[in-house]
């Protein structure tokens, strides 16, 4: 059996026998709820008022953690244990994914009544959005809620690639652990040598691969007078001229063109459903020599060994990665570059110490982001099941092809 729905507790029931006025105030029975929503993952935490509206509008069923394991989840769908539900609601990234990849095996078992799948998180490489679209199911992500947090984090990573922050921070802290007898050696080396490879971001070209919500916020922040970078971008579809003018962004019709023109490249585009990398040895060879690279998108978009090769050969001078191809494991070659704090043979660049910043998929991780994940996911479902327009759909193109008979 599924766990009871986590509908907010109603107010105390009035005593009808002792209070005649309360009897007249009792509402009429509600009409049966038309739609059922399958809530996978933890109970909501941040938006009780919106959830009260949500639970009032729909019958909400939240399967237990055991029922969300793939084998049991498949059995439940085959048994139609939860009936003909209309929506799937996943409010958090850290739970609700126990069943694994949403592929043909799972999607084929969904009842024909499902109209929308709204999930936390910006990435959707774990779900076949094309197949959902072909089944008439709108997939909505929550990237909009994470955009500001990711862009803020990317600002720090961009600065890191220009100022070699892993080296500067590590030499003052980790250096004492590496050389306890003479911790001042790593401190002095960094103080003297980091200057020769550090630069101000101002006036340099920031190349954005993707000018969606994150890319636009990043362009606004780094192109502002505060940082004074020149903004360039590549996207599969060119943005309106008005937006380019507002952001001071120059469009490049090809990825190769953007890479050749950029002093720092930031990857901020969704992952591809096929999981193939966008940046490979071939594309890294197109970077301007000595350019920098930041990834706040998906680790699967980058051939990390090719990136390590480019760093070792000096084609790329520094990198910062918040996401990794084999999370939670980090590429061992990049890890060595992040933790090597001692100059080799008197050289700092290349190969140079501490030229890689590595973080643990933290870019979107703020309380405000998770508040937004909850709210936006519920609002998407409310909109679709009330026959309105989804707020953040990602696969409408696939639905349109089906509707057009293509």
From TrEMBL:
Entries under PROSITE patterns matching the protein: D_2_HYDROXYACID_DH_3
List residues of the D-isomer specific 2-hydroxyacid dehydrogenase NAD-binding domain.
Answer: 197-337
A UniProt-annotated Pfam family: 2-Hacid_dh_C
Q: Which residues form the signal peptide?
A: none
Task: Provide the alphabetized UniProt keywords.
Answer: Oxidoreductase
Stored CDD domains: Mand_dh_like (cd12168)
Coiled coil region boundaries: none
Could you tell me which residue ranges the D-isomer specific 2-hydroxyacid dehydrogenase catalytic domain spans? 101-395
Q: Which InterPro entries match?
A: D-isomer_2-hydroxyacid_DH, D-isomer_2_OHA_DH_cat_dom, D-isomer_DH_CS, D-isomer_DH_NAD-bd, NAD(P)-bd_dom_sf
Gene3D superfamilies attached here?
Answer: NAD(P)-binding Rossmann-like Domain
Superkingdom field: Eukaryota
Show the segment(s) annotated as Disordered. Answer: 1-29
Q: Which family does it belong to?
A: Belongs to the D-isomer specific 2-hydroxyacid dehydrogenase family.
- The name of this protein is Uncharacterized protein
